[in-house]
């Protein structure tokens, strides 16, 4: 049976956490905080799920203004299904849903840095972050 893709604004937090764990992205996401995961899903502008026999094998989650930029905040593909084009298709569909005229932006997980150039994305030389923490923002 082929992998199916669709926009899934109602993706459950349980399904999302499950694929995060199976993709290893759970190492970098708050999977032990169900309320945060629910908020991440609720406040996303675009959620695309890849399913095989009903099971979620991949998810792309993005925030966008639908006019200028799209931030691909999560790309998770079950490790057992990687290297089959699922990640590339999730990115394509998320970008398409947000508008191909927008600039797609992402921060790569350390283990995935080599993947994005492989699929034709260009590395940007400057990115700065202020991590969320108890210290509170920019000083």
Give structural notes:
This protein is of the alpha+beta class. 27% of the residues lie in helices and 24% in strands. It is built from 4 helices and 5 strands; from the N terminus they run E-H-H-E-E-E-H-E-H. The protein has helices at 13-23, 34-42, 86-98, 115-118; strands at 4-7, 46-52, 55-64, 69-77, 103-105. It is globular and about 40 Å long. The relative contact order is 0.16.
CATH class: Alpha Beta
State the helical fraction: 25-40%
CATH architectural designation:
3-Layer(aba) Sandwich
- First-last Cα distance: 53 Å
Q: Under CATH, the topology is which? A: Aminopeptidase
- Treating each run of at least 4 consecutive H or I residues as one helix, how many helices? 4
What is the overall pLDDT average? 91
Q: Strand content of the residues, in percent? A: 15-25%
Which consecutive residue ranges, at least 5 long each, have pLDDT under 50? none
Backbone structural class: alpha+beta
| Number of structural domains | 1
Rg computed from alpha carbons, rounded to a whole number of angstroms: 15 Å
Shape: globular
Number of strands: 5
Going by CATH, what is the homologous superfamily? Gcn5-related N-acetyltransferase (GNAT)
The biggest beta sheet reads: 5 strands, mixed
Strand ordering within the main sheet: 1-2-3-4-5
Order of helices and strands: EHHEEEHEH
């Amino acid at each position: 049976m082929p992998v199916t893709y669709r926009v899934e604004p109602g993706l459950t937090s349980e399904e999302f956490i499950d694929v995060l764990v199976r993709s290893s992205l759970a190492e970098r996401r708050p999977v032990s905080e169900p309320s945060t995961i629910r908020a991440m899903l609720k406040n996303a502008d675009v959620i695309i799920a890849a399913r095989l026999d009903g099971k979620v094998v991949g998810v792309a989650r993005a925030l966008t203004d639908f006019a200028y930029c799209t931030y691909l905040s999560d790309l998770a593909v079950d490790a057992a299904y990687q290297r089959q084009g699922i990640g590339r298709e999730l990115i394509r569909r998320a970008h398409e849903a947000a508008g191909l005229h927008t600039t797609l932006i992402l921060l790569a997980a350390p283990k995935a840095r080599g993947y994005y150039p492989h699929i034709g994305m260009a590395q940007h030389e400057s990115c700065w972050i202020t991590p969320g923490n108890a210290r509170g923002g920019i000083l």
